[in-house]
Write a structure and sequence with these properties.
The chain has 4 domains: about 35 residues, no CATH class; about 180 residues, FAD/NAD(P)-binding domain (3-Layer(bba) Sandwich), CATH 3.50.50.60; about 120 residues, FAD/NAD(P)-binding domain (3-Layer(bba) Sandwich); about 80 residues, Enolase-like, domain 1, CATH 3.30.390. Helices cover about 25% and strands about 30% of the residues. The protein has 11 helices and 30 strands. The strands form 8 sheets. The protein has a 5-stranded parallel beta sheet. A hairpin with a 5-residue loop joins β16 and β17. α2 runs parallel beside α8. Its cofactor is FAD. Its EC number is 1.6.5.4. This is monodehydroascorbate reductase (NADH).
Length: about 475
């Protein structure tokens, strides 16, 4: 046996082969001696969010062997569809709960339960943090003291909620101030909402989280005041005209809106629980339930000193490889070239991008050289409303809005030469949603004067064949 071992090691070394996989473990040859790494994988995904689930499914579809893939996640549960937290989890009847929204149900696929990972030989290393990455040795060090080696690494660490404690705000550490980013946050917020029925809450932020949580509060019989410094809701995407429809609708649902002032500090009681919010204009809002949605920060600290950065993300090429060709970055932490917009660099914080990037990275790992071709896409569901947006909103484009939100709305962003670059609908049919996606991807040139003659959403949609 020893002779066979020496012969095998000598043969492997002569061939330039560092080792081989057997039973999900790698046997590494070093100066004729055999050693076996306890945690050694061909593929490792760091991060257990949406991207991890979709990448895992793609790996299985490629036919990986058991023991070749590990997912390392700080969360205690298998990857799940994060958008469910601000929607079905808070307002469903009955509310959504795991295992109901594990990936990949968000795109109509099979639900990947913890058992699914076990059946396919994928190691879920849950409740574990990676504290160091050494790209030169392809080694990850965990907070537990364990080490994990990889051949190919996918960084899918996502984003964390920006918190007022990060910004040094007075009273920001009081209990009763909630953020919503993971399932633990959602569970705490759900319990707080149920205990707060018939009372008043404060929502800080007018973006996705602010709008969706405000809707959830009202639907749970909790009154609320939304506070945001921007000129209107969803300022990053909505035009003033589109935003006005939603603000009017929210007010009809009983939501109070304060635009202009921002949060200055929090006040609390002797027990350390929040009792109110002080705004920059001196207004004081009394409430012991505050929900904050003021943005997210990409979780890039782990590799910021090892990989090239751009726009607060890891710079990747068209194949989603970072400056280290063995490391891929996907989702919120990746800054990538938008192929359909002349390779303009972008970092997109959206679940649709995370899903598509994850699957594309796996394709590249298995030999594809196809460039990632992403059409920007955003959506939300609030109350009985559901909007979708596709495409781009460049500064040189004019937004044309058709119809009123009762219930249907249609909008397009058009450049001066008549080229349509972005599309938006509220309460559209599935066929109409497919149509606006096609329009945004094809970017047709239209007669602006004739398009402006349309009055209703239906006329605007029917203008495009």
């Amino acid at each position: 046996m020893k002779g066979l071992t020496r012969l095998l090691s000598t043969t492997l070394a002569a061939a330039g082969i560092a080792g081989f996989y057997f039973g999900g473990k790698r046997f590494i040859w070093n100066e004729g001696k055999r050693s076996m790494a306890a945690k050694d994988y061909r593929y490792v995904i760091v991060g257990g969010g949406v991207a991890a689930g979709y990448a895992a499914r793609a790996f299985v579809e490629k036919g990986i062997s058991k023991g070749e893939l590990a997912i390392i996640s700080e969360e205690a549960v298998a990857p799940y569809e994060r958008p469910a937290l601000s929607k079905g989890f808070l307002i469903g009847n009955p509310p959504a709960r795991l295992p109901g929204f594990h990936t990949c149900v968000g795109s109509g696929g099979e639900r990947l339960s913890p058992q699914w990972y076990t059946e396919h030989g994928i190691d879920l290393l849950l409740s574990k943090s990676v504290i160091q990455v050494d790209p030169s040795t392809k080694t990850l060090k965990l907070s537990s003291g364990d080490s994990v080696r990889y051949d190919k690494l996918i960084v899918a660490t996502g984003s964390s909620a920006v918190q007022f404690t990060d910004l040094g705000f007075s009273g920001a550490d009081h209990r009763g101030i909630h953020y919503l980013r993971n399932i633990q946050d959602a569970e705490k917020l759900y319990d707080a909402i149920q205990a707060h029925k018939g009372k008043e809450a404060v929502v800080i932020g007018g973006g996705y989280i602010g709008m969706e949580v405000a809707a959830a509060l009202v639907q749970n019989q909790v009154s609320c005041t939304m506070v945001f410094p921007e000129a209107h809701m969803m300022e990053r995407l909505f035009t003033p005209e589109i935003a006005q429809f939603y603000e009017d609708f929210y007010r009809k649902q009983g939501v109070k809106i304060l635009k202009g002032p921002s949060c200055k500090s929090f006040i609390g009681n002797e027990n350390g629980h929040v009792t109110g919010v002080v705004l920059t204009d001196g207004t004081q809002l009394t409430s012991d339930l505050v929900i904050v949605g003021i943005g997210a920060k990409p979780n890039t600290k782990l590799l910021e000193n090892s990989l090239k950065m751009e726009q607060r993300g890891f710079l990747v090429n068209a194949q989603l490889q970072t400056s280290d060709s063995n490391i891929f970055a996907v989702g919120d932490v990746a800054t990538f070239p938008l192929k359909m917009y002349d390779n303009r660099l972008a970092r997109v914080e959206h679940v649709g991008n995370a899903r598509q990037m994850a699957m594309h990275a796996v394709d590249v790992i298995f030999g594809s050289q196809k460039a990632y071709d992403y059409l920007p896409f955003f959506y939300s569901r609030v109350f009985d409303k559901s909007w979708k947006f596709y495409g781009d909103t460049p500064k040189d484009a004019t937004c044309l809005v058709f119809g009123e939100m009762n219930p249907k709305l249609f909008a397009v962003w058009v450049r001066g030469n008549g080229q349509v670059v972005g599309t938006f609908t509220e309460s559209a049919t599935p066929e109409e949603e497919k149509k606006i996606e096609r329009i945004a991807r094809e970017r047709p040139v239209v007669d602006i004067a004739k398009l402006k003659a349309c009055r209703t959403a239906e006329e605007g949609l029917n203008f495009f064949s």
